């Protein structure tokens, strides 16, 4: 009964997806602009990789083709996936590649999980059928979970570099440079990916006739880094009202370092607690191992 219900649910889901794909709604202006903007970001964020084997090239092409179709259908219906798009911008990946990977992993789980169950002698009925569905769902969500974890780690790395960037800007301001020149000179020191992204944002802002802090604000919005948007607001005030920006930047840098130190100390404390718990479990298991023969003898007596 459970197998029939699961099979019916899968068939109904397939028909629903088929109708969803074939019934193309007329996209509005907002959806069209979002699709064009997403395409622009994907072209800007995508990086060329080294040529691999033909099989890898075919798999990559199939993945990007499937992901591009899903992305186009989602954008036509006003589904922007802003959180995922922000994480992909941090990792410098395209949305089409990410969506295609999700679909391919789900299909792989749907094919290989029943084969593994059959190989170990388990019939795909009842609970194993539910396990297959759970494996498909987990495989589909796995790229999102991995992407979120990697993006958070990369943002933490960006904030670490941003403290040094603020110190460099303050030093350039102390040397007599103007604010736009100080920002560009500070971002030109080093080839770390965070410095490169800041330098690209400043260069794009200059080409498009925007102020440097507007470019920094756009970068903060694209990467989901609130500290960049706060910095852009402070720089805008300095450019308009002539605030003491050098002192403000140094104070902001010190604040970011103290916050980072607190986070590191908190992570170290959590690791220590985890190690202590693991040691207690090992000691408990060892005591049970030592006491088991005596308990067995008492039970036999």
From TrEMBL:
Pfam family, one: T2SSF
InterPro entries on file: T2SS_GspF_dom
Ranges annotated as spanning the membrane: 109-142, 276-295
Coiled coil: none
One Gene Ontology term, aspect cellular component: plasma membrane
Keyword Nuclease: no
Primary localization class, coarse: membrane
Membrane topology value: Multi-pass membrane protein
Chain ranges of the Type II secretion system protein GspF domain: 165-291
Signal peptide: none
Protein origin, superkingdom: Bacteria
Subcellular location: Cell membrane
Keywords assigned: Cell membrane, Membrane, Transmembrane, Transmembrane helix
Name of this protein: Type II secretion system F family protein
Upper lineage: Bacteria, Bacillati, Actinomycetota, Actinomycetes, Propionibacteriales
